[in-house]
Amino acid sequence: MEKYAVSSDGQRIHYKESGSGNTAIIFIHGWLGNTEWWNDQQEYFTPEHHIIQMDLAGHGRSDSSREDWTSSQYADDIKAVADAIESQEIILVGHSMSGAYVLEASLKIPKTKALVLIDTLKNLDESFTDEQVEQILSIYRSDFKNAVENILPQYLFVEQTPPDVKERVQKEFLQNEPEKAINALQPLYKTDFKSIAKQIQIPVIAINSDASPTNLEGNRKYLKDYDYVTIAGVGHYPMLEKPEEFNLILDKVLQKLT
Q: Taking all residues of the chain, what is their mean pLDDT, rounded to a whole number?
């Protein structure tokens, strides 16, 4: 069922609700994603779980007129949906940039019992200078289409990534206005997630692609209860690239957490 919650700054946040159960699993897409990225998970998990798919502000069917793009506002988007649903407990599943935002959101949502990170925050020790951030964003500013088609693929996809997934992701990226896309991405580079991670007391489990390493010991310096599992032969979108295998892995992770 299609629904809307209202974030702290008045933006209408779109979400879809299906299934039932005491624990709600809220799926949050990465940069320039949308609820549809989780359709395979919705189909697989709905029979036994309360499933929520949501669009952050500036994405999908949610409002995109936000003036102040911050990590805290994204966390408020997630909180708005969590507050709108009937559920005793919540597990937040955050892909890519949303991994950072579910950390912050969990501190605002007392009912959150665990976090699942999808190919994100693989090395919390990694940080960027203002100059590096500007360099990254300038690539999108100068030629967004070229960045999406020729620069990003080397970071987002691997040889085994199905061509239809590449095509889909690139097509959806290019439906966005470059400036809005940049606004939506900036908070990821401008927030100190280490200090947020240190406040997290609940279990955090990541499902990470083997395309780049995970700094287990480094992350455990910040996250009290952190572990990860690897899914092989995928790029940055395991839920789209290998949905059946991803669902089995996520199922095991959820069983451990519930």
A: 96
The answer to whether 172 and 34 are in contact (CB under 8 A) is: yes
d(CA 16, CA 12): 13
Query: What's this model's pTM, rounded to 2 decimal places?
Result: 0.97
3-state secondary structure the chain: CEEEEECCCCCEEEEEEECCCCEEEEEECCCCCCHHHHHHHHHHHCCCCEEEEECCCCCCCCCCCCCCCCHHHHHHHHHHHHHHCCCCEEEEEEECHHHHHHHHHHHHCCCEEEEEEECCCCCCCCCCCHHHHHHHHHHHHHCHHHHHHHHCHHHHCCCCCCHHHHHHHHHHHCCCCHHHHHHHHHHHHCCCHHHHHCCCCCCEEEEEECCCCCCHHHHHCCCCCEEEEEECCCCCCHHHHCHHHHHHHHHHHHHHHC
Q: What percent of the chain has pLDDT over 90?
A: 96
Q: How does residue 83 score in pLDDT terms, banded at 50, 70 and 90? A: very high
Write down the pLDDT at residue 2.
87
Token duo for residue 46: 């709905």
What is the pLDDT at residue 1? 78
List, edge to edge, every strand of the sheet that includes 23-28: 2-6, 12-18, 50-54, 23-28, 89-95, 112-118, 204-209, 226-231
> Which CA distances in Å does 18 have to 21, 36, 47, 247?
10, 13, 9, 17
| 160-208 per-position pLDDT tens digit | 999 999 999 999 999 999 999 999 999 999 898 999 999 999 999 999 9
